[in-house]
Amino acid sequence: MRVLLLKFCDYACRVDGAKGSVIGMFDTIGGPEFPLTHPTFFITAEFEFEPYESGSTAEVKMILIDEDGKQLMGVEGEFVIPRSIEGRPVTLFEMFRIDGLTFPRPGHYRLDVIYNGEPIAEARLALIQGPHPAGPPR
């Protein structure tokens, strides 16, 4: 398994039942004071599996940790990898809605993807005090 896409975003959904849609990708959140509670955001991931993995069970876990290694949140799931079509890799788009997550202080946070017990990908998220450098606060 490989992770093709791993992003924080304002909104994510499936279009026509299968196509993934990602709106408002970001890697920085600005806020006037901490602790800061972010009302809602999404974590999106696109996974790719080799044809020989079809039919097997995948255990995927995502954990968000702070600079000290403390876990702020985690999501996990187990699913059966769909059948490969014409021997091509299988891709799956997944999204996770996160509501009301509180970040205790500014700093750097890391989202780890763990597949069958092994870390395989990460995404970084910076929390800064003050407005987001590219525009109004998120």
Could you characterize the architecture of this molecule?
The protein is mainly beta. It has no helices and nine strands. The N and C termini lie far apart (33 Å). It has strands at residues 2-15, 19-26, 28-31, 36-49, 57-65, 71-80, 90-103, 107-115, 118-129. It has one domain: Immunoglobulin-like, CATH 2.60.40.2550.
Give a quick set of tags describing it.
68% strand, 138 residues, mainly beta, Immunoglobulin-like
Summary, kept brief:
This protein is mainly beta.
What CATH architecture would you give?
Answer: Sandwich
| Largest sheet report | 5 strands, mixed
| CATH class identity | Mainly Beta
Structural class: mainly beta
Order of helices and strands: EEEEEEEEE
Q: Please mark out the parts with pLDDT under 50 across 5 or more consecutive residues, or reply none.
A: none
Secondary-structure map:
Elements: E1 2-15, E2 19-26, E3 28-31, E4 36-49, E5 57-65, E6 71-80, E7 90-103, E8 107-115, E9 118-129
Parallel strand pairs: 3-9
Antiparallel strand pairs: 1-2, 1-4, 4-7, 5-6, 5-8, 8-9
